[in-house]
Amino acid sequence: MRVATAAFISGLLTVASAHFQLQYPPPRGVFVEDKEPTFCDGYATAVSNRTVFPTNGGIVSLHSEHVHWTLGGIIATVQNPTSFDNFSSGGQFQFVMPFFQTSGEGDFCFPVDFGAQNVTGVKNGANVTLQLIYDGGDGQLYQCADLTLSDSASVPQSVSCTNSTNAATTPFSTSVNPDPTSTSPSGTSSSTSTATSTTNAAPMNVAVGFSGLAGIVGAIVALL
């Protein structure tokens, strides 16, 4: 009984600490699990060897460790974005991937069309940074990719575009309020801006949060 219960608790804690890994375009740095809840996975400086990325007709691929999750993408057009403020204009985040919800664990791939989003500065030859905002129900996670946009670029043939499930994606409206501790490690700024996608849809059905999980674990431990 105790062994089975311990295994169950371990499984719950694994779910609560699940993450995601950006695969393409390549992220700013090697994935750091403990830093993913912070701005750009803890990497505050843009890389010098940017990925040449299609202005139109690109893809984003990632590996998800959550069963149900949401994803959105914001873009910065400054040379070296170091805080969430650099991804906003007029107090609103600059979305190039409006938020959507889907389900499934494993590898996923989504089309992106930066040029169609009418963000000032998104054009051929521009150095930009894409920041993905991922939420599996236990908090927002962030990863960044530094890119140089090109009208003539295409996705390399070596990059696979596969989906682990056939689950539908559901766009929805949501607000993003980055935690002040999620800004650059140097503490250059903190953002209180709120950005909302223009799509009207039902609110996100989130998974059990960590506080709820702690209550469940506490109740189970009391039964031991």
Layout: helices, strands, pairs:
Blueprint: H1 2-16, E1 20-24, E2 51-54, E3 58-64, E4 68-76, E5 88-89, E6 92-93, E7 95-103, E8 106-112, E9 127-135, E10 140-150, E11 170-171, E12 175-176, E13 195-196, H2 210-223
Parallel strand pairs: 2-10
Antiparallel strand pairs: 1-3, 3-8, 4-7, 4-9, 5-6, 7-11, 9-10, 12-13
Written account of the structure:
This protein is α+β, with helices and mostly antiparallel strands and 224 residues long. It is built from two helices and 13 strands, in the order αβββββββββββββα. A six-stranded mixed beta sheet has the order 2-10-9-4-7-11, with no helix packed on it. Strand 5 and strand 6 (92-93) form a beta hairpin. Helix 1 runs antiparallel to helix 2. The longest helix is centred in the N-terminal third of the chain and has 15 residues, at 2-16.
Task: Summarize this entry quickly.
This protein is of the alpha+beta class and 224 residues long. The chain is built from two helices and 13 strands.
